[in-house]
Amino acid sequence: MLAVMSSAAAHERSSDHPDLSSDTLRKLERASGGMAAASITAMERQLPWFRRLSADQRSGVLLVTQNGVAGFVAWLRDPQQAIRLTAEAFRGAPRDLARWVSLRQTVELVRIAIEVFEQQLPTLAADDAERAVLTEAVLRYGREIAFAAATSYAAAAEARGAWDARLEALVVDGIVRGDAEESLLSRAAALGWDPAAEATVLVGNPTSEDPPEVVYEVRSRAARAGRPVLIGVQGSRLVVVLAGPVDGPAGHEVLTRMATAFGSGPVVAGPTMSSLAEAHRSAQDALSGLRAVVAWPAAPRPVRSTDLLPERALAGDPEAERQLVDGVVRPLVDAGGSLLETVDAYLEVGGVLESCARQLFVHPNTVRYRLRRVTELTGRNASDPRDALVLRVALAVGRLARSRGLW
Length: 407
Hints:
Blueprint: H1 2-10, H2 22-46, H3 48-51, H4 55-77, H5 82-91, H6 97-100, H7 103-120, H8 128-177, H9 181-190, E1 199-204, H10 211-225, E2 229-234, E3 237-243, H11 248-259, E4 268-269, H12 279-292, E5 303-304, H13 309-314, H14 318-335, H15 339-348, H16 353-360, H17 364-378, H18 385-403
Protein name: DNA-binding transcriptional regulator, PucR family
Keywords: DNA-binding
GO molecular function: DNA binding
């Protein structure tokens, strides 16, 4: 009878875990450090990339492994705390662990550590029943560790995404405000933007009041077009910086696709700049066009800011006035040959060729020739209603500028 009682006492099961003895749990606690060290040794032997890590980085992995082993023993004492303990194992890791060890590599580390556990734990069991319990426990705990690793990396990805979003907003805001080139380019480089890429700024209304939804819409369309973008939601205004050329039919198609990511109302595209360092000029022209486009209800969508020069000039934009003078008035004055006088007379008589010829005392063919020269020099056809408006406003702006001694 005493022998039976003595044998029962030797195999007394722990009150913490009904299937493991207190003696086995104590063995596990004493062996935890050795199992962690054995896991690191196996990682160094099997993973070439792990051997290339610095001593500090390997010690960070060792810390996570030690916490994981300690968590395993604590979990055996209280299986209800599995998620909390495994999450704490990764929470105690160095903050930059996710930067130099990818999620795929972390899965490899967990796999090797679990293999070491499976090899060493059965030797600590008192009998076959405990060995079965420990084997099952390793498998279950490995699953919890894997989920904890995935959760940790997901949290890191969300934090990085939030940081990137804030940095992107700072870059776009800097472009709109015309910040110093150095700070702008350094922030954009951190987002992976090619500083030498051409940049075009588009402005308009967002599709909704939810910024993440707006950003998703813009990014999805930019991805389909194969173009990098920088996005800024500034209250009721959406600003998009589009990389790459937008000239020609293909470029116009890209602008049209991007315009569908904006909400109702006009979308204005500034001029294409040679690099991000000059993007503030595109932003200034685009915003000026957005303020003035209300004067042209039939404006296309999107509309280039250069097509809104008359409205911008009427709204008091000095840059639009300068572009009209430099792009229309100066070429006509420098060309001579009464081109300025001819286009002025043609517009005054309502575009009637014969009336213009009579007013100038020249043959109608002379007027035709001069108007063709005007189109060649300015890109504007006086017979087109929209171009006629641009020419008329340009001539008026040119006279005002000359009266003020600006040219």
